[in-house]
Amino acid sequence: MEDYKSYIGGEWKAAKSGADFEVRNPFDNSLLCKVADCNAEDLKEAIDHASKAHASWKKSTPRERSALLRKIGDLMMRDQDKLAKVLTLENGKPLGEAKGEVGFGATFFHWFAEESRRAYGETIPSPAPGVSFTTVQEPLGVAAMITPWNFPIGMPARKISAALAAGCSCVVKPAEDTPLSTLELMKLIEEAGAPTGLVNIVPCSRNSVKEVGDAMCADPRVAVISFTGSTEVGKYLYAKCADTVKRVALELGGNAPFIIFDSADVDAAVSGLITSKFRNTGQTCVTANRILIQAGIYDRILDNILPKIKAMKIGNGMESGVEQGPLINERQQARVKRIVDESLNAGAKLVLGGKVLDNGFEPTVLTDVQRGMACWEEEIFGPVLSIMKFTEESEAVDHANDCDRGLAAFFYSKDPGQIHRVSSALESGMVGANHVGISMPESPFGGYKTSGIGKEGSKHGLAEYSNIKLVVQNFN
Ligand code: ADP
Question: Which of 45, 90, 190, 251 is catalytic?
Fold first, then answer.
């Protein structure tokens, strides 16, 4: 595989320091390539270019923005197979999932190609005779983005498309484990004819990330930071942005409850749970993390789900039929092991799995889980089902809400009254009732509580990159 450079001001460039870092395949730890390791100097240059590009892009018409966005989405679909292979090589997820993610990313470019033309203002009923009150939406300016390794093309696509649609320019720092998909996306943005400096990519290693992140937060020309990643880093960046009073959009960790009530359709609930828990080997922020099953249906759900989990094919995401890939890195593997071990020591029961694999973790089922156990309180980010039995609806809702996170929550029930009551009671930004597919360009994706600030996708996603300007005109 070729080595990759950064993309700054319309050019592929080595880091100013000459440094680079290695990107490895999480399945076998083989070296894929080296990537330019940018520092604060490279970032500054990227912001210089993004500022210049913004000065003209903000004057582009919505139709011009729309045409560029549509073209990028079309090119992603043209190269879907190629992009998916790069994604699987660096992230490990099964090729079918990677292909789905490329399609997911393309739909955001297509969606925001349309939304850019619908950035309406308002005409406000005037409180004064002969004076008009109107609003317009204006782009914020340079948007800086920090993206995670679990959706290396979906997350940058979701952010870049919204920012460009609003009229912003972009400086993107992809995750150090998975920068290649973002750099491949950049090649398509370039091919689509994006103006020089409109989108810049500054990859960097874990060693340089604090320097680059701090410089992004400190630079007054950056108007907004959009971050998807851990709650710890999100809180750190939020505090760092206070000095320059930046807009922040934070999509942070979750700890999703997944409740199965007695009235649920067993097949639908089991299929939803498997999809939610095991997609990307459990490494998603909306994955089912705290499983609550009502006593009357408990045995049927376990009898149904255990053989399906046992039959899962684990291996190299590039091989057909593989459903569970590796975990992203050793840090993540050690974390999953620690959480499982601590939970077992605290009294959880191991029903399935539990072993560390060469490059990942066996699909694992823990029952008799209690509040306070690591697998309940922490976001596992691995293929581990932590199950608690309950009897009353109110008990399940209490357990679900007893958490400082509030990203997604899911439940299965066929009782309409219960569906209404529980949807209203759950304290989370997204609720899936009898459905786990919640993340689409049409959906406002975002959390309550410490799961974040702001929404991505939908018409609200455009607002994250826009200012509302009030224009008052006196015609007297
Ligand atoms: P994880 O622990 O799952 O890798 P992180 O929140 O650490 O989650 O990583 C998400 C993104 O945040 C990555 O792109 C990573 O490089 C970046 N990141 C990590 N630490 C910092 C930091 N101090 N400043 C800016 N970005 C950071």
Answer: 251
